## 1
Amino acid sequence: MSSRSRALAICSVLVVALLAVAAFAPLPFSLAQPGLTTNVLGANRGKPVITVAGADSRATSGELRMTTIAATGPDASVRLGDLVENWFATDRAVMPRDSVYPAGDSTREIERHNAAQMKASQDTATEAALGYLHESADEVRVKLRLADVGGPSAGLMFSLGIVDKLDGDGSGGDLTGGRTIAGTGTISKSGAVGAVGGVPLKTQAAGRDGATVFLVPKQECSDARAELPKGLRLIPVSTLSSAVDALKALEAGGKVPSC
């Protein structure tokens, strides 16, 4: 065998070895799919998601559904074959692990981080909603309960739920107009809506659970259009106020923002 042939043979063996290692080595990715949705105007585990004290709470019709994605756990091993299998699937996504689990290395650390984010999001959503309604937190007390969900992405829907419970559309009607409305987005104390990620999977979860309207952070419009379920209308929002105005316009047959 010539020296050139020996070199090619050695290189081939090395390439095969590297491919074998890549095929079986865990990679820093998570696999995600549409997750659960929850009606924040309803109950979770037998208890109302939103409870109000110090003010009259309205009986509401329709639904305001917060949306989630379901991802492989932080300790799950994702390999090359998994990436190839899921990369082109329309109902699944391959996401960098750090984008799904940005804090901590253990399941317990991540659960604590997500729970803390959810609690902060609920407090901020309450402050944003009461600020929009010009109500004092010293007089109106809001309690939010939602088990087994972490992170800040339900902030917008929490705020809208509080507004609907306390004020509706401002003229005695429901903010939802009796529809099933889903959405996602963080919320700031001033009512600004922020991006969240995973929107194409969340629109699929919304469509699966009967939503006809999806509220999406304006900056994620293009993402939301990807794999959009048939019959699901996108409404871009940038603030709590713009979300409320869009829902009122939708019910009144007025001009509604579009992606």
## 2
Amino acid sequence: MIKVVIADDHTIFRQGLYALLDKEDRIELVGEAKDGKEVLEILAEHAVDVLLLDIEMPRMDGFDTMRVLKKQKHKPKILVLTMHASPQFIKNIFANGADGYLPKDAEKAKLMEAINTVYTTGSYHTPDTVNIIMNTLKGNVPSTNISAREKEIIKLIADQYTTNEIAEKLFLSTHTVESHRKNILLKLGLKNTAGLVKYAIQKGLI
């Protein structure tokens, strides 16, 4: 039996995935979590083989969860399920401790293949993922996949503009600005604005 935990803050997706896997004879569902803190609580009490991990979660996101687990001697294999698919993002999730990656819109057969493979071999890579990793080793993956609009927002953040000021300057809603900021951090695998500014300076984005 493969002991599995599902971590995703979207209740419908998480419960749907739980119901789907609950029908599989080889899967034992140990628990479900809506953020990284709940993941750590479950892992403190149960032995888990595979963690199905979303990245974008409140309180403690997938990157922070992987960083904590990376330091632990005994950790489950981590299969990241996400809708983000840029080469930089995929590169960052593996750099932060993921053992496998699968898009959220994958079919059930592909999900079962991923779970079984990461459990038995320790890793799971689709052909696309392998190409991204190989190109990264060869230096062919761009250092960033940031759009022109996102670069504009990064520059304003670096110039110490507030979210409201950026929204007013770019004629956007504050919600849109916050969404851009969150997506930039996710793409680059960064934790906060300070890390974003440092990265942007190093990469010549500003």
## 3
Amino acid sequence: MIPIETLAIIFGLTSALSWGAGDFVGGYAARRTSAYSVVLVTQIMGILIFPILAFAFSEGLPPLNNLMWGAFAGFFGAAGLIVLYMGMARGKMGIVATLAAVISVIIPVIYSVLNEGVPSTLKITGFIFAFFGIRFIVTMNGGPALKAKDLEYPLLAGILFGLFFISIDNFSATAIYWPLTVSRISALIMLTGFIVLTKTVRKPKSGVISLVILAGFFNTGGATLFALASEAGRLDVATILSSLSPAVTVLLACILLKEKLDPRQWVGVIAALTAIILISV
């Protein structure tokens, strides 16, 4: 039988693979349609898939407060995805995804500090790596540094994802699939209201529909695997491992889109990913 700690690591890493692939596909699709269309489909797919999983695993309805945390997770997760996809549609996927991941890790760590005390020396070292990683990422050799407006999307997305992780941790010990179903319903309501008011969504072209559905599949898988990792292990470990997803996004962007990063930015990406690992120890 696989030890519970090993299961937590496996779930965390596979959630990173699923989310990383979903971020790449979703960001690419957002370049050809609106980010709102992409995120809307991801929520609909979750509403269809999560109840099936709940019945398949005979999961009973959890207490109301757990469902409320699911609703919070839906709001933060959907808002974070919109901001992330908008950022990746406007800039380099590798930079946007990595910065968002670093911030999304720091938020749960701060939450853990308030509940469990001061972090270890390794975690503090991770913060230092994160600082220098961000510094290298936003400065390019032979070119202008990224402007403040270029950082708005990844910073906001990171904060929202951090709150998303905390929300999931608050219900995963009791139930997973029903709270995730509620999270998708609340996100769908929020998105629908926003789209109706702003009229910012447009129907995806036929060539983009398959990409949007694929992004929704990966995003749904990532959320499920993260919830399982959070249930099996610590929040900070689950968060860090799942936040390795930018490595997948960067790799896919380099291979499929031929994106090229400045050498200093590559150093920044590596430093940021190192920070994620150190913060999890």
## 4
Amino acid sequence: MFTKTQDIERAFGHIRLFCFAVVIFSTLLAAVSIYLCFDSAEKSAQKIYILASGKVLEAYASERGENIPVEARDHIKTFHRLFFTLAPDEKVITANISRALYLADASAKKQYEDLRESGFYAGIISGNISQEILVDSVKIDASAQPYTFECRAVQRIIRPTSIVSRSLLTQGQLRSVERSDNNPHGFLIERWVIIQNKDIQIQTR
């Protein structure tokens, strides 16, 4: 009689232990599953799909702080390319300068107005001159706002009889602003000055 009772108690003890183990295992499995689901959802939320030329491209979202130097350099390069790429066509000049002035403050507008008043753009058109720019380097101090920068580039002024290469050095600051269609990087160039702009080579055509 006592032996049967002990066997029953032992059996219930094993069942309780088994049930306890199953509960612990189930709880751990549920916790791991929930963690993996949230992790997968977070990673999925960071994925961006871009449709370009009929192809779906996958990209990843990231915090802006991770991309500030990259975006800032591209902003500065874009501004310089628009401001200094000229053709003997008033509409081309106006279109490029208009787009460039969305990326900078009044310091860039003043440079443009000074050049216009001096007859620079009229000379480009009447002389059938083209101008292009190649940015060599952009140095940015992103340690504190506003971010200071230095841009080095080479201008090529193509005239009917010659090609003039000029070294260009500019400096300024970058301030963060709201992104827009006209300013996709969300930066504004301030206190922009041309430090150096001199001939380095003249080729006869």
